[in-house]
What we know:
- By secondary structure, the protein is of the alpha/beta class.
- A hairpin with a 4-residue loop joins strand 8 (154-159) and strand 9.
- It has helices at residues 13-22, 37-43, 63-70, 81-89, 179-187, and strands at 2-7, 26-31, 47-50, 76-79, 94-110, 123-133, 142-148, 154-159, 164-167.
Amino acid sequence: MTTVMIDNYDSFTYNVYQYLCELGAKVVVARNDKITVDEIKKIDPINIVISPGPGSPKDSGVSMDVLKAFAGKVPILGICLGHQCIYEFYGGDVVVSGEIWHGKTSSMEHDGKGVFKGIPSPFKATRYHSLVGKISTLPKELEITCKTKKNGLIQGVRHKTLPIYGVQFHPESCISEHGKKLLKNFLDMKM
């Protein structure tokens, strides 16, 4: 019963790892260019987390191939770059947001479903990004689950029929509220 986390070379990867382990997950972390889809299949994960990282989805190594191989087979959570991978994988555009948020909190409003179940809305979450999913290119397979309260930038998406979730903000940041609850909600999801 293993969670696989794709490490997109981000300093926050092991913060996510620590939270997941504290919540009872057995986690295998693999760098995005040091593991293949076939190797992940041999691990037989019960779920997958695609970590934050620098750059854009084109810089995410095996992450997009993981989405192709495991969508509909195990629950998947994308955080920051992982979220952007989900958005782009389904055909949306990831663009410059017009604002750079690195280590700053924003008030988030969400729909209370999926990974947001039992989390108050609004809540404060820490953002470390300058790219965002362009709302006008929202893929038909996805729905928006969370936005910034101030200006409506996409901060969360969910696949309409599969347990695939993305959050643009960093739930593992110590100044994000309810981050462990969000990760626990994900770990509790089944196919």
